[in-house]
Write a structure and sequence with these properties.
Helix content: 10-25%
Order of helices and strands: HEEEEEEEEEEEEEEEEEEEEHHHHHH
Number of domains: 4
Largest sheet: 7 strands, antiparallel
Length: 453
């Protein structure tokens, strides 16, 4: 009798489980994915869209040819299960990228073919990483990058150190005659020509480039504060170059930078403001409206800790390098300049001073005693370690509670836990942290602003 009852209950429970399973399967919608377009250039806009379960977070990942996640974001599907997410094609060496959308094991993927741009767009690059394609100077001065070189035009000299770029290039210096839209800093006086420097290859320099310009001594006296500035069209502001050196006898001023754009020598009175006050950032950037990190991005733009690009974009979904993140940290936290550890691979780097300052404050330590890897994209666990040190958070012995916590390196585990507990850095909708995932500019801005609060 008991045996028959046991069999009866077993049959009933099994039937219930089968019914529930069938019900859940029936309710689950297979994720679909479409890309528009399916062939694009780095920096182009692409829309990922499709169907999923209603009101569900859909993760969108882009994976390169060696399996590295080069982009990650998420969007909520609507009540009908439709989702859409716009992204910019990252600058990678792969000709083919795989876009994966979904959640758990319910995913769809599509191939995205990446081609080189055929139509270069005007403008150089600007601070904050990345670069636009400059107009090709057909009659520019050719530089053999293995030897470096210099270009002299219009009273300006550009010195390119050997090995500062990946390939040979041509450089052109042109005079800008209409400066009516290039508003000067408060109390600022233009004391030189306004020059635009361009190159025929896209990308930033990996070593600091020295620019020297002449200024008109008859317009100012020796008490004036003068410096070499570059113009940031996204912020509509002039930004001072690094390592400014003034030679009053020769009437020249020089500075270091890692990109080309528009340059000029600007003077301020003894009581003036040598640094450019930043304008209000509202609609100057074209690609942050509606972005989940817009408030954090605006905060750092207002502080002058990060900038946009010449095409009026911020590129929030682009990756950020270790040098760039260290630089934003130093500026955002207003750290006093320091002479910390000097690494072999930062000696000629555009961010050498900021990296040295971060090292002096104990924020960075490098891969080894000699290597920092300034141009490597920063990982999320590296970002956690640096932000915890910059914010001076107490370490915690509690282990992080993410689904992939086992993938977090031992040296980063406490920092990830501390940053997570403080609400500074979060995981993704599927409760993963992706410790080796490459952080984006939007993620970096959000993490830094939260640490400042």
């Amino acid at each position: 009798m008991l045996k028959k009852r046991w069999i009866s209950w077993t049959v009933m429970i099994t039937a219930m489980l089968i019914t529930l399973l069938a019900s859940s399967v029936a309710l689950a919608a297979d994720v679909t994915l479409a890309l528009n377009p399916e062939t694009a250039c780095p920096g182009d806009n692409v829309t990922a869209s499709g169907a999923a379960d209603a009101a569900t977070w859909v993760s969108v990942k882009i994976i390169d040819s060696v399996g590295t996640i080069v982009f990650f974001d998420a969007t909520m599907s609507d009540s009908s299960g439709n989702y859409r997410l716009d992204f910019k094609v990252p600058s990678v060496s792969s000709d083919t990228l795989i876009v994966v959308a979904g959640y758990g094991e319910n995913v769809a993927n599509k191939k995205l073919t990446v081609i080189e741009s055929k139509e270069p767009t005007p403008g150089g690059s600007t601070g904050g990483g990345g670069a636009a394609i400059a107009p090709a100077p057909a009659d520019g001065t050719e530089i053999k990058i293995d030897k470096g070189g210099r270009v002299n035009e219009h009273g300006a000299e550009v010195v390119i150190p050997a090995g500062a770029f990946a390939k040979d290039l041509k450089i052109k210096i042109a005079k800008i005659t209409d400066t009516s839209k290039l508003s000067l800093p408060e109390d600022g006086q233009l004391v030189s020509e306004v020059l635009e420097i361009t190159k025929d290859e896209k990308g930033d320099f990996t070593k600091a480039v020295t620019i020297t310009m002449t200024f008109d001594k008859s317009k100012i006296d020796s008490k004036a504060e003068i410096a070499l500035y570059y113009y940031d069209p996204a912020l509509k502001a002039w930004i001072k170059l690094d390592n400014i050196k003034v030679d009053w006898e020769k009437g020249t001023v020089s500075g270091e930078i890692n990109h080309f754009t528009i340059f000029a020598v600007i003077a301020a009175g003894p009581e003036g403001k040598p640094d450019t006050p930043l304008p209000s950032v509202s609609t100057t950037l074209t690609d942050i409206a509606g972005h989940w990190a817009i408030d954090s991005i605006k905060t750092l733009l207002q502080k002058g800790a990060i900038t946009g690009y010449p095409d009026q974009s911020f590129k929030p979904n682009n990756n950020i390098t270790r040098a760039e993140f260290a630089t934003v940290l130093v500026k955002a936290f207003n750290l006093e300049p320091g002479t910390g550890k000097n690494f072999d691979d930062t000696a000629d780097h555009w961010a050498k001073n900021e990296i040295a300052t971060a090292a002096a404050h104990g924020i960075v330590s490098g891969y080894s005693a000699t290597a920092f890897g300034p141009n490597d994209n920063i990982t999320r666990e590296q970002m956690a370690v640096m932000i915890v040190k910059a914010a001076e958070l107490s370490q915690t012995s509690a282990a992080p509670s993410f689904n992939d916590s086992n993938n977090i390196a031992d040296w980063a585990e406490q920092s990830v836990a501390a940053a997570s507990a403080a609400g500074i850095i979060k995981g993704y909708p599927d409760n993963t942290f992706l410790p080796q995932g490459q952080a984006t500019r939007a993620e970096a801005a959000t993490v830094i602003v939260k640490a400042l609060e």
